[in-house]
Specification:
The chain has twelve helices and eight strands. The chain is of the alpha/beta class. Strands 3-2-1-4-5-6-7-8 form an eight-stranded mixed β-sheet. Bound molecules: 1,4-dihydronicotinamide adenine dinucleotide (NAI).
């Protein structure tokens, strides 16, 4: 069954060569793990300076991995690093980087229009069999895919920060994603040593859909004067067994990121109390207190 799309393109693609667009926090992390598991990675960003930093970051992270993994064999560790780095090449030209790719994975700025423009352009340049995927945290995959003519070969691959440490990948199918594409993305996640879960294209998929309203309710609980930040964090760590309390987690994720996600959901579903705004969160973000990355959020 071709569901109205070109039959020739519908096949199970084994992903060996991939192009990652965006060499920031997530893109570099995904590149590191993909290259470490034997995939050939082209990493694309807007400038050579950014790409140099990405590769330096990957090298630094690999050194930490190797220190543990090859503790008693430093030479084998160095060899492993060199082998992994050989699997990574960089480019500022996305159009030529996608030429022989099985998968184009996008991890650029969280902006629908910019993602649509990128994919719309690459759709005309990438081979027919190439699968497109976005690492977006909060935008509907189907909205991003709508700028292309390969809706059957478009899905979501949502990794977690820090990518080398976090085992989970959410694999997202839109209503148009073919079973072959979905299976290829699942198999690729497994080949990267990750554990995939299947998701529908719904706001926040599984993890963020539960985690963001939870953090927001912790903030509102505190705003109502029903508990201090410290006590709420201790309560969830010792009472629920969570490794971080909600305020510690919010500082780690970034308060601006949480606000951006909630505002987006709130705009689409204004009546939903789970997506209601918080004055305290708005104030901290307005003051530039975004959490760990700015040195201060709920905590210093
Ligand atoms: P980042 O800001 O660290 O990196 C984004 C990179 O994309 C930058 O290096 C930027 O120069 C580059 N870029 C922007 N526009 C580009 C373009 N048109 N072409 C090529 N490169 C371009 O952002 P981060 O945190 O890595 O996030 C990237 C994506 O991953 C976003 O969609 C975000 O929602 C998602 N995500 C983020 C997570 C996180 O914890 N930070 C977790 C899971 C998903």
């Amino acid at each position: 069954i071709c569901r109205g799309f070109s039959c020739s393109a519908v096949r199970n693609v084994v992903i060996k060569q991939l192009t990652i667009i965006g060499g920031g926090l997530m893109g570099a992390g995904i590149a590191q793990v993909a290259a470490s598991t034997g995939h050939s990675v082209k990493l694309v960003d807007t400038s050579d300076d950014i790409l140099k930093k990405s590769v330096k970051g990957i090298e630094g992270s690999l050194k930490r991995v190797v220190k543990k993994k090859f503790a008693d064999k430093p030479e084998a560790g160095e060899e492993f690093i060199q082998k992994v780095l050989q699997n990574v090449s960089t480019s500022t030209d996305a159009g030529s980087a996608v030429q022989d790719s099985d998968l184009v994975l996008e991890a650029i700025v969280e902006n629908l229009k910019i993602k649509q423009d990128l994919f719309g352009r690459l759709d005309k340049l990438a081979p027919a069999h190439t699968i497109f995927a976005s690492n977006t945290s909060s935008l509907p995959i189907s909205d991003i895919a709508s700028s292309t003519s390969r809706l059957d070969r478009f899905g979501g691959l949502h990794f977690f920060n820090p990518v080398p440490m976090m085992k989970l990948v959410e694999v997202i199918a839109t209503s148009a994603t073919s079973q072959e594409t979905f299976d290829s993305l699942l198999n690729f996640s497994k080949a990267m040593g990750k554990v995939p879960v299947s998701c529908k294209d719904t706001p926040g998929f599984l993890v963020n859909r539960l985690l963001v309203p939870y953090m927001m309710e912790a903030i509102r609980l505190h705003e109502r004067g029903h508990g201090s930040k410290e006590d709420i964090d201790i309560a969830m760590k010792l009472g629920a067994g969570y490794p971080m309390g909600p305020f510690e987690l919010a500082d780690y994720v970034g308060l601006d990121t949480i606000k951006f996600i909630v505002d987006g959901w709130n705009a689409k579903d204004p009546g939903n109390p789970l997506f209601a705004q918080s004055e305290l969160l708005n104030k901290l973000v307005a003051e530039g207190k975004c959490g760990k990355k700015t040195g201060e959020g709920f905590y210093k």
